[in-house]
Amino acid sequence: MTIRSMTGFGQGSAESSELRVRVELRGLNNRFSDLRLRVDPELPAEEEAGMRRRILGHVQRGRVEATVRIERPDGAAARPAIHRELLEEVLAEAARLSSEQGLGGRLDALSLLSIPGMFRSESIEPEWSDAGREALERALGTALAAFDADRAREGGLLQADLLARARSMTRGSAGARARAEEVPKNLRDRLLQRLESLAGSVDLDPARVAQEAAVLADRSDVTEELVRLEGHLAQMIGMLERPDGEPLGKRLEFLLQEIQREANTVCSKSGDLELTRLALAIKLEVEKSREQAQNLE
User: Fold this and answer.
1) Residue 140, domain CATH
2) How many secondary structure helices (H) and strands (E) does the chain include?
3) Domain of 109?
4) Higher pLDDT pick, 145 / 79
5) What is the domain count for the chain?
6) pTM attached to this predicted model
7) Under a CB-based contact definition with an 8 Å cutoff, are residues 253 and 290 in contact?
8) What is the tens place of the pLDDT at every residue in 186-220?
């Protein structure tokens, strides 16, 4: 299965003996599936509805701005017509002059049609034929193919980047687990050094020291958090390496939120500087990964 970005561009055009159809598709980031369709007024409503269904069949998440332009040969949608209002005004004015001034004679058709502005172009409603429908389908098909290819190309780049970051976080988690195993001994040594510096020559009870060291180690134990963190990272890598065709962006965003939660807990519980540093590095990768995941369908 292919991982696709929400952003992309595609265009297509097709011609018939009657018209030319141009279709443009632009994909933008959006939390949900949304289609903004701008069509030529000539396009019948049933054709617009069919276009909408076809485009949304290719998009599961993101906003798509679709534009349809229809071009016809010059004059194909217009015909000459007499300017009726002007004709009536001329005839009325001629009758008034004849009545008031006693002028004789009559206006003939040739004289009337020679008056400037007597002819004008009148638009006609073009018929939408099977040829126009086929041109629209071809143009839309070409635009959709280019749109999907562009989104798949960008999706592949995002997939590679997210996989690299997930593997980097996995290495950081493995380093944190190794470091966490050393934390109890380090805490005990630090506790002993501090007690010796405070107690001076006073003898310390080894059992009590061991008990206090065990309490500190338990409070700083991040084993459960690291186990969950490694599980989330394994799931993330699996989703990226073996996509199932379903929208991936929202699922990745949720998973990254869980990864960040575990890294935050490691930082808050850890009493070790190196372990905290490793957890902070994971949090930084999470933030960068979330920015990329927000571009995925």
Assistant:
1) 3.30.230.10
2) 8, 6
3) 78-123
4) 145
5) 3
6) 0.70
7) yes
8) 666 565 566 556 555 556 556 655 565 555 555 56
